[in-house]
Hints:
single chain; Alpha-Beta Plaits; six-stranded antiparallel beta sheet; rod-shaped
Amino acid sequence: MVLRWLLALLVVLTLLGLLANERWMTRRVVLHGQGPTQRLEVVDDSGSGGASHAALVSAADGAKALRCEIKPGFDWPFCELQFESARGDLDLTRFSSLRLWASVSGPQKDGGPAQLRVFLRSFHPDYPGKGGGEDLKPHEVIFAPAGLAMPVELRLSQFMVSSWWAQTHPLPVHLMGPQLDRVRAISFSTGGQVLPGEHVIRIERAELIGHWVPPETFRLGLVGLWMFSLLGYLVWESWLVRARLRRSVKRSQALEKLALRDPLTQVANREGLNRALELLMRAQGELIFPMSVVFVDADYFKRINDEHGHEVGDQVLTLLAQTLRANLPRDDLVARWGGEEFVLVMPQTPADEAVAVAERLRAVLARTHWPAGLAVTASWGVAEACNEAGLEAAMREADQAMYRAKHAGRDRVISASA
């Protein structure tokens, strides 16, 4: 459920991010030609040998208008309205389009609608020439505004280097093609099919449009966010699976311990003893032999239960198991065989050493403080196994030796070999 909510939140954030990048992360620079940041100039062909004359006309609505009188006698007559930045060259790579509200009028050779030429003039110190206005690289778009819905949005990727300029200004390979990182002037000029007469270029508004974060970069960031989220989810899911696996293993181990342990005395039961012997054989093989088996049976235990109750009897069994475990080496095994009977398994111990250990334990029981002031003794039977095949026989022999100890008067150790 949490994952579904997180996924829904990520989808919503992605959609909001795309919408915000499209509508609210937009940067605009208005070309107004006023103030300390911009300059507005008019240019005509009179500086190039022509006779045309351009003048700036003030419009009541604040629009910038150029009135141009095209004169005959020059091959390429023109008039131009030019915006320049007073703070140095403009880096238009941060923008995506030029938005225009414009109109053009004037006679044309083909009788068609008047055209408007838009130039983005860029500078580079390695361009040929003396660095004057004619040596700025012009990036050009030409269209007829008549009949078009305003504003017209010109993508900066549509601007191409004017072929006539490229022919007169040969460039090295690395400077060929559009370069919009150092635009010195943005110009609006009459078209190439003008006839002598009056021409008017009216720019109601011009804006450079861009994004604070380019859409490509923003979308790449969103892809990165999704990939990072997916990676985070996979790591989190892996951690959860591992945690569940650890808990499952711990529960399995706990259940296994419960299944292999006597719940009253907390020593191994028969199954636990068999499992421990199996692991011991797997780890050390025949090195664990000779192995001694000792059967221990509490004396007169039924009398303890009858005279003092089963609660005291349980306390006696628990203390007996604890005493045996506390006075044996760690490698020796202790298990409850059933009722008041216990089994000790001593790896790498011959029968005579096991008899000595059993005698020592018998003496420990005599010194132990038992519940209800009881004096608890036990009968002990010892047998030796020389290999794995003889282990089962040693179990039977030790059990029989223990019964012989009981019949002989209890509280004593008898070896099967005696």
